[in-house]
Amino acid sequence: MNSNFFEDVYEVVKLIPAGRWTSYGAIANYLGTRGSARMVGWAMNSAHGLQDVPAHRVLNRSGILTGKHHFVPPESMQESLENEGLKVINDKIVNGSESYWNPNVELM
DNA sequence: TGGCTGACTTTCG
DNA sequence: ACGAAAGCCAGCC
Questions:
Q1: Mode of pairing for the β-strands spanning A58-59 and A22-23
Q2: What confidence score (pLDDT) does residue A78 get?
Q3: Nucleotide nearest to A4 (CA to C1')
Q4: What is the count of structural domains for chain A?
Q5: What's the pTM value of the predicted model, to 2 decimals?
């Protein structure tokens, strides 16, 4: 496709298994552009219209729902995560270390 | 063409 | 330990 970056981001996000989460930096790093972690979020903004892209599974490196405010409604992000078996308290993933999904490891 | 923006990340103070 | 600033890349005006 034309926008390789966005397409790649979508691909990776779509590959995230339910009950798992990853970080923007991990995806950016997987794409080889660690510096453009913000771009990943931006790509999500465009992917926001694609239901195939579970953007709610993409958090910041701390496992905090940084982009929840971009969801409609924002609470849907946390509910979606909890619906998949993840525990979210105070907009943050609980035991994130165990449920963390690294594309560089899983897709490598 | 040039410059701003951005759902991040890392480092210095 | 907390706060603020810089760095990175790609899309959009």
A1: parallel
A2: 94
A3: C10
A4: 1
A5: 0.91
How many Å does it take to go from CA A69 to C1' C2?
Answer: 24
Nucleotides of B under 7 A from a protein CB: 6-10
Q: With 0-12 CB in 10 A as exposed, 13-18 as middle and 19+ as buried, what is A107? A: exposed
Enumerate residue ranges in chain A where pLDDT < 70. Answer: 1-3
What beta strand segments (E) does A51-94 contain?
Answer: 58-59, 88-89, 92-93
* A73 conformational bin, left if phi > 0, alpha if psi -120 to 50, beta if neither: beta
User: What range does the domain containing A27 cover?
Assistant: 5-106
Is any atom of strand C within 7 angstroms of residue A28's beta carbon?
A: no
Radius of gyration, CA atoms only, chain A = 13
CATH number, domain containing residue A65: 1.10.10.10
